[in-house]
Amino acid sequence: MFFLIAAPEKSVGVHLTLLARINRVAGMPEIRERLMQAPDAKTMREIIDEADEDI
Fold it and tell me: Which of 3, 24, 49, 51 is the most buried (most CB within 10 A)?
């Protein structure tokens, strides 16, 4: 699974925060499976947001 994060050059914290969130939830097999089946980036973001809230 690969993620591309586009953020303004001067906003270093934004991409680091998102990478940390992805790292936390991608380690869970059930979340990883949902991400693999997501039809689009919006759905993937929703899955990550939902899973991150549950941690």
Answer: 51
Nearest in space to 38 (alpha carbons), one of 27, 55, 20, 26: 26
Confidence (pTM): 0.71
Q: What is the pLDDT of residues 22-48, one digit of tens each?
A: 888 888 999 999 999 999 989 998 998
Q: Whose CA is closest to 27, among 5, 48, 53? A: 48
DSSP state of 9: T
Two tokens at 31? 């979340």
54, 27 contact by CB (below 8 A): no
